[in-house]
Every structure is written in structure tokens, then in C-alpha cells.
Fold this sequence. Notes:
Layout: H1 2-12, H2 16-23, H3 32-51, H4 53-56, H5 60-97, H6 100-114, H7 122-128, H8 130-136, H9 144-150, E1 158-163, H10 171-178, E2 181-186, H11 217-220, H12 242-250, E3 269-274, H13 290-306, E4 312-316, H14 319-335, E5 350-354, E6 363-369, H15 396-405, E7 408-416, H16 429-442, H17 462-473, E8 478-482, E9 489-494, E10 504-510, H18 513-517, H19 521-534, E11 539-542, H20 544-549, H21 551-568
Parallel strand pairs: 1-2, 3-7, 4-5, 4-6, 6-7, 10-11
Antiparallel strand pairs: 8-9, 9-10
Helix pairs in contact: 9-10, 13-14
Amino acid sequence: MDYQQIVRQLEAIGTKDFLSKLRDSNFLPNDWFSVLQKGVYENWLRHIHNDNLELRNFNQDFHERKINEFSEKDKQQYEVAIERLRQLHVKRWQDWLTQAEAVQQVKSFKDESKKQRGQQKIRQFIKNAPQLVTILKPCWLMSPLGVSQYVDAEAVEFDVVIFDEASQIRTENAVSSIMRAKQLIVVGDNQQLPPTSYFESTASDDSNDEEEVYENLLDECPHLSMMQEFTLRWHYRSQDESLIAFSNQEFYDSKLISFPNPVKDVSRGVHFHPVEGGIYNRGGKRKDNIREAEEIAKLVVQHFQQYPKQTLGIITSSKQQAKAIWEQVNRISIQHPEIEEFCQDNSDKFFIKPIDEVQGDERDVIFLSFGFGFDNEKRDNLNHNFGYFSKIQQDLGRRRLNVAITRAKCKFVLVASIKSEDFGAEKGQQAALLKEYFAYAQSCGQKLDEKLADEVSHSDLHFEEDIYQVLTERGYAVKKRVGRSAYPIDLVLIDNLKPETEEYFLGIICDGATYRDYPTARDRDRLRQEVLQKLGWRIYRIWSREWNRDRDTQINRLVKYIENLRNQK
């Protein structure tokens, strides 16, 4: 009776034909609901395709040609904009020359340029000829103090003022520029350093004295109701994801979009270089780690010999350690004179700087000399005062670590005389963060407790799962969702010839859940693929409409492409 009642209820909602076919089939009861699901989805898709002409007539080759055409025109529009800007600039200048005020200002300019001495001060000249200066040179690059010094507040009003590295700009220094502008754009990172008394301090680098932290423009902005906030999420600098993965998780709530590299070798990523016998001279006058400085100097020579075209930056935990490393580099350059030109001070290829002086810098390779460590040969009872890395007010220690570990484009090497296991338990949040990063570096950027909430449920990944099954059944080594940010590559083939390094052979992008989440065509179809290809990826696209319509042909096409690539290699 229960059975008859359930059958009548099902037939009443339109399943009579389905139940009849099910009775005549050989399907096991456990599969009945899956059969129903498939029927519902197939009919649903058929209904959608019948109602949507573009989907019904979707053609992979035509669609990819359209994407390529869009990508080319999207890039061309930047070149067109540059040329248009030049033309507008010339026209604006020529139009202004016809006005009466132009004659006097141009004459004044020519007269001043002929003088050998006694020329007007820059501030005075700008005040006397504001239209000439702003129309001839509409874009100015100045420090906030330079604006106060050279630009009279009543002489020039800028359409837009843009502050870069705004976390480093003291609020009182920014006011003079803001009052000279119609529109304000403030760019900065609140996880990097604010202005501090570092450059004014005479205290030692491991002093427990509190630093003075000054108000900065970036921190003021959230309190201004008229300011709109935008987050720049794409991270281009790091050519290996491990260079940004730690900071992305610890400091940026995993909101940055980063991109994996298809190649894993010693020239990329995060590395740890232990220094045996390194002692931090905590009680001495110099307060440095000579053994570590000597090791850094050797690494500089090694870097130049192996990668002479790559730039190098050395970040130190203190001014004293920077001085010690300079001494050792100068000493070793006597034995290796070939590095002298490369290691010049203030070179765009090389620097040695304390942590507070590197914000805004970047180099291909970065060495971080931690410096601090045990202060005796017995190596017992590690002192957890790590100088500027230990400052807790306004998270200065955390911010310094973030700045230091995000300066590298290709490779980051932590050089230290201690290891993560040397850090004591319950020594405070800052020591715990350093311990965590040491463990991360010691694992070459692999050990990271992933906290990224994967918002894509498995129910959204049937398409990708189907392709994965097809490839693994044919003997290919495949990884799913490769990448440590919110937009991974759907499927990646591992090079069977190099299984020990897990070198990636091909990236497969589907128009599934990840593709759907990119907000614009530029993001989905141009920028993402461009960035991946610059990193060395080969990318193959699979479109769900084609896969659904003719799965066998799509499989054969994919396998043929893979085999052609393998034969080329």
C-alpha cells in the first residue's frame, strides 16, 4: 500500500513515463536517482539551448578567434590612448598660445632662459606663469615637501593629486598637496610600514625602547566618508607563488590573486640557508653576526657566477649587520674582482639595506640576513629580542617581516644562524610568527597551513572532474586546482619525464566555476592567460558546450594536442 501511494504521488508530478521506463530497465535501485538527475539536467540543458541562440550555435574555433581579436584590440587601445593623449596635449598648447596671457608668459620664459645669473626662483616663476607651466608640463612628479617648497597654493590647482606609498607619508606633510587639488587618489598598503622615528633614532637596533610611530595619510582615509575604497588584488611581481603565499595568508586574508609557476627549481621560490656556528654579538659594541655576514658575502659571489644578469638585494635586520656585510663583500671582492662593478653602492642591480629602508624596492633575488641568534657557543637559552622584528606597537614587527619577504621577483633566501625549532614556545605573537615563517622557508615554501576557504563546492566541479577522469584513465599524471589563491588553474598535467620535480607540462582551463568567478572579459580571457604564459605555461582551453555536445571528439582533440606537445619536447 505504501508503494502504491508513493507511485501515485510520483505520477501526479509528471514521472509516469520515467517510472515505466525504469521498470523495464536493468538499473539497480541505488542508481535510480542518478538516472533521474541526468534526465532532468539533459532536458534542462536542451531547454536552455533552445532558448539561447548563441549557446545553441556555440563554436569553439569561432569563439576563440573572437577572444583573440578582443585581446589584441584591448591591448591596442592603450597605444591608441597614448597617441590620443599626445595629440590632445599638442592641441591644448596650440590653443593656449593664441590667448593674450600666453604672449607675456612665453616672453617671460624666454627671457629667464637667456639669463646666466639672477634667474627667478622656481616658486616665483611658477607663480608668475602658472598656465605656461601646467599646460606645457601637465604631469608633475614631486615629493609632498617639494610641492610646499615650489608651488604657491594660489598659483596652481591640480585636477588630480595621487599619493603613492601613502603609508609612509606623514599626514601633516600631505595637506599642502591635497589643498592644491580637485581630486585625491591615495595608494598604499596598510600592511607595510608607517612613518617611524627609525631615521631619527640613535638607539641600537635591539633596543627595547618604543619607536615613535607617526600618523600617516593612508590610515586617515577610512575615517573620511567621502573616500571610496578599492582593493588592487592582482599580484604580478612574484614569479613563484611561494614568494607571496605566506604574506597572502597571514597579512592579506588570502585575497590577493597570485599565479603558479610551471617550473620548480633552485632559481625560484623561497629557500633557507643555515649558517653553522653563527653567533649574534649581543653584548658587544658592534651587535652583529660576523659568521653570517661572511656567508652572505660568499653567496653574493655564487649568485654573480650563476646568475650574472639577475639583480640582487640584501636586506638586514639592523644597521650594524648591513655594515658588517658591506665589510665582508668589500673584502671578498679583492679575491673576486669580477663582482666589484656589480656590487657598487646605490646600483640599480645591487643593494645592502636595513629592513626599514627597503619599502618600495624590488630585485630578482633577495637575501634576508636575520642576524639575531644565540649569543654564546653553547647555543642555549635563545634571547627572543629580535630588534626591529620584535616591535609590537602598531604591529611594526609583523609589518617589517611582510616588507622583507615580499621584495623578491624570482627567489628569496632566508640566511640565519637559528632554525624554527630554536624558537621557544609561548614567547609572544611576534616570535610565533617568525617561527612559522622560518618553518615555511625551511620547507622551501611548502609548509603552510592553508586557511583559504575554497568557496567552490564539489557540486560545481563535475565538468572538471569528468576531464580529470578521462585523462587519468589514459595514464596521464594530473593535478586538480593548481594555485594557492582563489583562482587556481583547473587541471594541470605533470611531465612524466620529470615526476620527481613535479614540473608542470600543460595547464587546462575550463569555463567552469573558476572562469565564471572572474568579473570581466579582460580578466577571464586576456590578463589571466597573458600572465600565465609569461610565466612559461602552455594553456589549453576546454569549453563545456562543446564537451557536452560532442565529448568523444573533444577527448580525441585534447589527447592529440597533448601527444603533439610531448613529441615536440
